[in-house]
Specification:
134 residues, alpha+beta, 3 helices, 22% helix, globular
């Protein structure tokens, strides 16, 4: 859901030194209706001045697109830089330049950050389009 909401601040329990392009894969587990409603309600309230167009379907087990990771902040650093920020996680990835794959690639992801195979990476780079900012 991170990707579809163009969430610039993604909470994590772990730190990453990664900066630059990061490919986003949807989890294999389908979100429940309750989870979707909860997140959509949160973001409608948090960004009350923006009309967010939520997707009708949230795909699973596929490569969705990519973002550019700008930073990964501890919660203390995050509060200094974003006092009204949306995440309360121990670490927060700051991302921008959301690009969606026109055709989603079926993929079995791994935990945390992992390397795409060369064939998937090569094909995916050709099918990106920019996502409007929230």
């Amino acid at each position: 859901m991170y990707f579809y909401f163009c969430i610039r601040h993604e909470g994590r329990t772990w730190y990453t030194a990664h900066r630059g392009r990061l490919w986003i894969a949807a989890t294999a587990k389908m979100p429940s209706t309750e989870e979707i409603n909860e997140l959509e309600s949160f973001y409608q309230c948090f960004y009350e001045d923006i009309d967010i167009a939520f997707p009708g379907v949230y795909p699973s087990a596929c490569l969705l697109g990519c973002v550019d990771v700008i930073d990964c902040l501890s919660q203390d650093q995050y509060r200094v830089n974003f006092p009204d920020g949306e995440s309360s996680s121990p670490y927060v990835i700051i991302a921008e330049n959301f690009q969606e794959l026109v055709v989603k690639f079926p993929i079995k992801g791994q935990h945390k950050i992992w390397k795409l195979t060369n064939d998937i990476h090569s094909a995916a780079k050709k099918g990106l389009r920019s996502v409007p900012k929230v």
